[in-house]
Amino acid sequence: MRRAIVILVILAAGVALALWLAEIGGSVEVRVGDTWIGVGMPIALLVLTLGFLLLHSLLSTIGAMRRLPGRVRARRAERRRADGDAAVTRALVALGAGTAEAARLEVRKARAALGDTPQVLLLTAESERLAGRENAAEEAFRALASREDSRFLGLRGLLRQAMSRGDWDAALALAREAEAAQPGAAWVREERAQLALRTRDWREALALAPPEAPRAGLALAAAEQEPEPERAAELERDAFQADPAFAPAATAHARRLREGGSPRRARAVLEQAWTASPHPDLAGPYLEDESDPLMRVKAVETLVRRNPDHAESRILLARTALDAGLTGRARGLLEALAQSGQADRRAFLMLSELEEAEKGDTPDARSAQAHWLREAATAHPEPRWRCGHCGTEHAAWAPLCSACGTVGQIGWTASSRAAMPAQTAEVTA
Ligand SMILES: [Zn+2]
How far is the CA of 26 from the centre of ligand 1 (A)? Predict the structure, then answer.
């Protein structure tokens, strides 16, 4: 509406100007030599206006023609980019669905349309890996790693490849490069921790373990690898402090203290460990210096004083009492344990032994023994160190299972707490 009014006003002004010019009259004369052209003022203005319009449209057409190839090129590039983006999306879908050949086809289209962008190179590598063509994938990862902007992505892919083929030396070198490319990346730290577990470098694994991970087992394993006694002692103490309930750390720490001339502190460590979690392996070092059977009973009473009703406490006390000939004491402890429902095979076998110790080789004793042996046959077995991965039983805790080679899986079957982080079975992510 407003535009119409503006045009009307301009038209009215034009008509008024034309009328005014016609009224004042006048003419334009052009003289060249002897010839001259004379036209009326309105005609001259009309000719000038027409000339201007003609020249303007001619120049505009020439300009448009000159810009035409650029425009065509831009439109073509835009279409190619759209095609490429669509191919990238289809490739992602195919990768997600696990259809390797479709993914490779789409990635090839995307690469033709978009060139070797980091995104396309990464998709190339992933689709080649999915198709099982590791060499082609490696080539794409190398291309990624050679670019400044996608270096980390390339190294990450190469590291994953090295880990899945078990080439630990190459993996360690790549992990260091990736760390340099992206300092502090959580993913690299995790991979390096896993690498340390796989290469049995417990000290590195301990340094890289996240704060919430179980550390006692790693620290103890690192202590066993440590050639310097002082540093090893420190690691053993760290292991014990990280988890006082982890008996191997407590016994190692106590042994070191005893060898260093502090038997009292060693005993205090074992008592603290027994309080945290009673474990039969703690008894041996605790009673090492005590040979008199009655004094051994007294020592065990001190060891178990904070949790005397725990099944392990009762079993240990009954064992030392029986060895000292205190059969009544042993019977009281074992029968209380049997009544609590927490008795395992050891308790029933000890009761059977007790019958013979008390009554000698009599028919009465034999019948009581038969009863306890039957109970023992159906009771739980005693807890042991067992590999959570293959189930093999071990005489002592170790950072890795000698039967299946898995790291961080040997645990005391009576407790479900892990002592160190486990190595993941397969390379993930
Ligand atoms: Zn195993």
Answer: 115
Please state the pTM of the whole predicted model.
0.70
DSSP code, position 407: B
Name the strand (E) or helix (H) holding 175: helix 168-181
Contact between residue 248 and residue 220 where contact means Cβ atoms under 8 Å apart: yes
Retrieve residue 118's tokens.
């980091």
* Unique residue bearing structure tokens 């990464």: 122
CA–CA dist 70, 74 (Å, integer): 6
User: What is the phi/psi pair of residue 31, to 5°?
Assistant: -120, 125
Spatial strand order of the sheet with 385-387 comes to: 393-394, 385-387, 410-412
For residue 224, the CA-to-ligand 1 centroid distance in Å is 20
CA distance 45 to 20: 13
pLDDT tens readout for residues 289-301: 899 999 999 999 9
How far does CA 286 lie from the centroid of its chain?
A: 40
Q: Are 312 and 280 in contact (CB under 8 A)?
A: yes
